[in-house]
Amino acid sequence: MALTTGELTLIEQRVTNDGPSTGVAYLFWFFLWFVSAHRFYLGRPGTAILQILSYLILIGLVWALIDAFLIPGMIRDKRNEIRQRLALQMASDHRQVS
Description:
The protein is an all-alpha fold. The chain has 5 helices and no strands. The chain starts with a helix and ends with a helix.
């Protein structure tokens, strides 16, 4: 069952409200890079821990700088996860009502 335009609009509003903030992600990256706070914030704890461990061999410093360019894609991925979860939830609600 396809979702209505109103339901898709509601999903986009929820993604905007519930999704990660680009500004916050960059603030975490800039001020708390050494604990990979931006990766934890964006729901990537596994790579955050790997990044922290890699700081011990200096590769992580380069990785932290590369993350400045990767943050927009990570935010887009996180928002898409939220969007898909909400769409599935609404579709499930439609089936229960029918």
